[in-house]
Specification:
about 160 residues, Arc Repressor Mutant, subunit A, four-stranded mixed β-sheet, binds zinc ion
């Protein structure tokens, strides 16, 4: 089974507005199906997380929102991010303490993230084989896995070729 690319590197030349539109549409759809309200603030925060292919920090989101609406307080932003995380619409990259939009919402507890240390972009893979392997290896030492978010550092092809 091949790894599925849920979120690609932008490669510097794609139409990113399409990524944002797709992500917002998918989120709307998923919330509707689950009977959850996709409020204006949740939508805007998701849009800001998707502003580029680079992870976004909570305080960056807060900064932008504060300029847009005076009512934007830290708890509002954190609650919206928490909601997006719980719904699998964004993921938290722990090593960077920042968020990325999910390329295909619906999996909360596993994922492999490729982090380019040169341009800062993050790609997302869904590799069931890898998940299985890690689960089995952990089991061998009696470890039970809850979340399996793998963060991998490296260099994307775009950055490699421009070196
Ligand atoms: Zn894009
Ligand atoms: Zn994802
Ligand atoms: Zn790169």
């Amino acid at each position: 089974m091949q790894a599925k690319v849920l979120r690609e590197f932008s490669r510097g030349r794609h139409k990113h507005s399409a990524c944002i539109t797709d992500a917002l549409k998918a989120a709307e759809h998923s919330c509707k199906e689950r009977g959850i309200r996709f409020t204006a603030i949740r939508r805007r925060v998701l849009e800001l997380v998707w502003a580029s292919h680079e992870p976004v920090k909570a305080y960056d989101v807060l900064d932008i929102l504060r300029n847009e609406r005076s009512s934007a307080a830290p708890p509002t932003v954190y609650r919206a991010l928490e909601f997006l995380l719980e719904e699998g619409l964004v993921h938290k990259i722990e090593s960077l303490n920042a968020y990325v939009g999910c390329g295909e919402p619906g999996h909360l507890d596993s994922g492999q993230f490729l982090i380019c240390s040169s341009c800062g972009e993050v790609a997302e893979l869904d590799d069931p084989e890898l998940v299985k392997l890690i689960t089995e290896k952990a089991k061998q030492i009696g470890f039970s896995i809850k979340d399996q978010i793998v963060e991998i550092l490296g260099c994307c092809s775009q950055c490699l070729s421009s070196k």
